[in-house]
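Troubleshooting log. The previous structure file for this entry was overwritten by mistake, so regenerating from the original sequence record. Sequence copied from the archived sheet and checked twice against the printout by T.R.
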Amino acid sequence: FLSCGTSSSFDAAVSKMRIAVMGAGAWGSTLAGLAQENGHEVSIWSRQSQRSINETIAESDLLISAVSMK
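Regenerated output below.
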C-alpha cells in the first residue's frame, strides 16, 4: 500500500498511521478498506458525519481526499 524503498526507519514510521478519508463513496470506502487491511487506523468523513471535518483532519497523520468534483 505504502512503499517507498527498503529503509527500516521509513517502515517503522509508517507501520501504523492514523488515516482520514474524506468521502464515503465507492473510492473512499475502497481506499479506507485497503488502509485498514494494511494495519492503519482509519476514519471516514462524509457530509453526513457527526464529527466536524476539522476534528477529523486534526487527529490524522494522513489525509486522503476521495470526494466528487461534481
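The radius of gyration is 13 Å. Archived copy saved in two places this time.
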